[in-house]
Design brief:
Blueprint: E1 40-46, E2 54-61, E3 64-70, E4 79-84, E5 91-96, E6 117-119, E7 122-126, E8 143-148, E9 177-182, E10 184-193, E11 196-203, E12 217-222, E13 229-235, E14 244-252, E15 255-262, E16 271-275, E17 286-290, E18 299-306, E19 309-315, E20 321-326, E21 332-334, E22 344-350, E23 353-358, E24 361-366, E25 369-374, E26 378-383, E27 386-391, E28 404-407, E29 410-414, E30 421-426
Antiparallel strand pairs: 1-30, 2-3, 3-4, 4-5, 6-7, 7-8, 8-9, 10-11, 11-12, 12-13, 14-15, 15-16, 16-17, 18-19, 19-20, 20-21, 22-23, 23-24, 24-25, 26-27, 28-29, 29-30
Length: 427
């Protein structure tokens, strides 16, 4: 029988915990004023021209709201970043990695932008599944990419002819472009930790050939210019004929938390936690895998840090979505969602309240329970000869779930049906 590593520890007061760097996930600011309405509804803002089916992330930056989009992440072509700024023509294309007109065999375009991160005064967008397994800019086996904007949020477009990679980024010169990650099959997320650029990937371990043998989940670390990143840490450290990915990242109490996916579905743990002294090199980082859920193998959908607490939204082996939280990073509790709440997709603080988005609408978190604020917007679909109404916030993908964002003091959410953008209004 496999050992189960549930953590049963007493949470320490926040002041008693050593602080190595500022707490929290500073990638998703949610400051706002006013009072959460007791009841509301979602109002359609619009569907951008060129929108893909799914919006996986929303990030405010420089007076605009950026939408990371995909069709079927890691499964079909479709990778775009759209920009929304209220006005006569509110939507525009920020970056298009669909590569229209290129041969589609093996994946002619990127297969999903899952996150658009605001980091170090610019935007960073990881390429979840690159065209053809990589365009051989550095590594003839496989390579992944992170697209970086300048400080105005502008991305370097693909080079023509052939929709080739943009020029290499150089952050020291504030030059937008691409960062290349040799030996990466997939790049899921990107973050700053311990003064470094870090990406979560599924990768080829050193000494192995691409497309055969083991493929552990990994962290890649960027150089000071963020132009080229190197394979730094692997999970598991000794992979044997299986494939893993480290997925979504967050910082909490000086540690780095990474979601975990095992392609074969045999992994008993749920996540990996990294820790290090502020100036430690990657080979000195410690790592430990945690099993928090009853069955293990949970898929991380979203992290959120709020007022000294880490929230974690998962899809688990029981087929259901769960919301858990921890105050110290070790002892976890589950939020009771109740009947009719639906699968959770995102969590954010807005107007003094913690709000949870699910398939069934927006809910306010009140202690250990939730109360519905607004129903979900729906659309009519034809299935098996019958027409029915379905939620725009359906959760039907392992990597992409409807996101929330606070922009200009308003709460926004986005669709998994047609890539449309929605805003909450009071009733």
């Amino acid at each position: 029988m496999r050992a189960r590593s549930f953590a049963l520890v007493i949470a320490l007061p926040a002041a008693a915990l050593a602080q190595v760097e500022p707490d929290g996930n500073d990638l998703r600011p949610s400051a706002s004023s006013g009072v959460l309405p007791a009841r509301g509804r979602f109002e359609r803002v619009g569907r951008p021209r060129g929108a893909l089916r799914r919006t996986c992330d929303l990030t405010p930056f420089g007076g605009a709201l950026y939408l990371a989009q995909a069709n079927t992440p890691l499964g079909s072509d479709g990778a775009r970043v759209l920009r929304y700024a209220p006005g006569r023509a509110p939507f525009s294309m920020a970056f298009d990695w669909n590569r229209p007109g290129e041969p589609t065999r093996g994946g002619g375009g990127g297969q999903g932008f899952l996150r658009v991160r605001a980091l170090e005064g610019r935007l960073a967008v990881p390429d979840a599944d690159p065209p053809y397994g990589g365009l051989n800019a550095v590594d003839p086996g496989t390579e992944g990419y992170v697209f970086l904007s300048d400080r105005q949020g502008r991305f370097e477009p693909p080079r023509m002819p052939g929709h080739r990679l943009p020029r290499v980024a150089d952050l020291a010169r504030d030059r937008a472009g691409v960062a290349v990650l040799p030996r990466a099959y997939h790049v899921i997320d990107v973050i700053r930790w311990r003064g470094r650029w870090i990406a979560s990937t599924g990768s080829v371990p050193p000494g192995e050939r691409a497309w055969r043998g083991s493929a552990p989940g990994a962290l890649h670390v960027g150089d000071v210019r963020a132009a080229r990143w190197t394979f730094a840490r692997a999970y598991p450290e000794r992979a044997h004929g299986d494939a893993w990915r480290l997925t979504y990242l967050t910082r909490f109490r000086g540690r780095l938390y990474a979601g975990l996916q095992d392609y074969e579905g045999r992994e008993p743990h749920d996540l990996v936690v990294f820790d290090a002294a502020p100036d430690a090199a990657p080979d000195a980082w410690t790592q430990r895998a945690l099993r928090v859920t009853p069955q293990g193998g949970a898929h991380t959908l979203r992290w959120f840090v709020d007022q000294g607490r880490l929230w974690w939204i998962t899809l688990e082996r029981d087929g259901r979505g769960h919301v858990r939280y921890t105050d110290d990073g070790d002892a976890w509790r589950e939020l009771a969602l109740g009947i009719g709440v639906g699968a959770p997709t995102d969590l954010l603080r807005w107007r003094g309240a913690l709000v949870l988005l699910t398939e069934q609408g927006l809910f306010r978190v009140e202690g250990e329970h939730v109360r519905r604020v607004a129903p979900p917007p729906t659309m009519s679909v034809l299935a098996r000869g019958r027409r029915r109404e379905v939620s725009h916030f359906v959760r039907d993908d392992l990597f992409c779930a409807s996101p929330l964002a606070v922009f200009r003091d308003e709460l926004y959410a986005a669709s998994q049906r047609d890539g449309s953008l929605w805003r909450l209004v009071a009733e």
